[in-house]
Amino acid sequence: MALLKQSCCVTGRFSTNHLRLSPRSILHVYTSCLNTSPKSSADREDRKKEVQSQDGPGLQDFISGELSEKSKWAEYRGNLKRQKGERLRLPPWLKTEIPIGKNYNRLKNTLRDLNLHTVCEEARCPNIGECWGGGEYATATATIMLMGDTCTRGCRFCSVKTARQPPPLDPDEPYNTAKAIAAWGLDYVVLTSVDRDDIADGGAEHFAKTVTSLKERNPHILVECLTPDFRGDLSAVEKIALSGLDVYAHNVETVRELQRYVRDPRANFDQSLTVLKHAKQVKPGVLTKTSIMLGLGESDQQIVNTLTELREAGVDCLTLGQYMQPTKRHLKVEEYIPPEKFAHWEKVGNEMGFVYTASGPLVRSSYKAGEFFLKNLLKKRKTEITRTEQEAS
Q1: Any idea which positions bind [4Fe-4S] cluster 1 (predicted)?
Q2: Distance between CA atoms of 117 and 363, rounded to whole angstroms?
Q3: For 13-62, what is each residue's pLDDT tens digit?
Q4: How many whole angstroms separate alpha carbon 75 and alpha carbon 26?
Q5: What are the pLDDT digits (tens) for 314-358?
Q6: Of all residues in the chain, what percent carry a pLDDT higher than 90?
Q7: Does the pLDDT at position 64 exceed 50?
Q8: What sign does the dihedral 233-259-270-207 (CA atoms) show?
Q9: Mutual orientation of helices 173-184 and 104-113 as an angle, nearest 10°?
Q10: Which of 187, 248, 319, 359 has its CA 20 to 30 A from that of 130?
């Protein structure tokens, strides 16, 4: 759209938010503003200042693009915390163009031919350009969703389809996934999935077969598995942890106090912590990773407490991003967190000792996963080499 950029982002693992206004609706709103504004230029300017001081910038300010610049963030005067009955206006730092990578069409066609799914396809995510190797500096990374597109759970933040009995698993999916990814020449792949509580092991064997097939075809590719909690079945966690993956990821999604409000009743904070702990116990060398959405009504102290528990559980990597309401049926955004506050949490995470902390309004659980992982893995290896050399001398 020429007048107003679309804004949409993944929340948690899958859910999205789309802001779409047709040219007709924009024209209607803008015309109404003109019809009710004073006629003289001086009066118009005074009225504009008055309105901005009360309600924040109007639609035309966003259309002009003036608030899309980082230098203008501090000038935003709209509400960031939701009042009762209010729906918050999208702040300027969450307006972004949809990046489409040069390989998008080719890779999408390959997925369709092999009956595979991606987070981008299922959630209609604008980060699709990034996930598919788009962008000038993007690492060749893909996020593939295993086990179909229908979940057995109904978290209040997520817009993925749900059903008690989704279609059966495709037995050829692990092989097809490995075949496709090997052909793409990727450096890093994130394998995630819906929850499949209808399957005895939650689909853990399906995950493990996919990782094994990938590593057999390309031993150098880095594999991250973003898994469900398997209802706390640690044998299922063990299957995946020992499959040859490099990063075991499972999202706690929100602070402890909001778990029952945000997630499906079958999920809980302690169960998620146990999954992350057990993956580390089974394979001490694996990196563990989790993600938290902000803007659901959590307090600063609750965030600190949650991060502390995660570090005590041995979690290595952390991402924090803005929650976005996918549909009117889902949880409302309670607060839009400014970029400066996300920068603060990144600093806090690093000071707590996470191997890396990725924190920002548009950061998601698999956000530039390969770039962050490779950068920090190399840093970690250099430190180990230096320590070994010092001990030898």
Answers
A1: 120, 125, 131, 366
A2: 21
A3: 333 333 222 222 222 222 223 233 334 455 545 544 443 443 433 333 33
A4: 23
A5: 999 999 999 988 888 888 899 999 999 999 999 999 999 998 899
A6: 44
A7: no
A8: positive
A9: 160
A10: 248
151, 199 Cβ separation under 8 angstroms: no
pLDDT at 359 over 70: yes
Residue type at 304? Answer: V
Residue 74 lies in a domain: no
Count of domains observed in the chain: 1
Do the annotations mark residue 125 as ligand-binding?
yes
The single-letter code of the amino acid at 240 is I
33 labeled binding residue: no
Report the distance separating Cα 246 and Cα 188, nearest Å.
10
pLDDT of amino acid 253: 94
Quickly tell me which residue has 């759209």 as its tokens: 1
φ, ψ of residue 42 to 5 degrees: the values are -65, -45
| Residue 45 half-sphere exposure toward CB, CA atoms < 13 A | 2
Burial of residue 131 (number of CB atoms within 10 Å: 0-12, 13-18, 19+)? buried
Q: Check residues 74 and 5 and name the one with the higher pLDDT.
A: 74
Is position 25 within any domain? no
Residue 155 assigned as binding residue: yes
What is the distance between the alpha carbons of residues 20 and 25, in angstroms, rounded to a whole number? 10
CATH of the domain at 329: 3.20.20.70
DSSP strand E in 206-265: where? 222-226, 247-249
Q: Of the given ranges (100-104, 270-274, 360-364, 370-374), which has the lowest mean pLDDT? A: 100-104
Distance CA 319, CA 349 (A): 9
Higher pLDDT, 326 or 266: 266
* Residue 180: inside a domain: yes
The residue segments making up the domain with residue 173 are 96-392
- DSSP states of 298-309: --HHHHHHHHHH
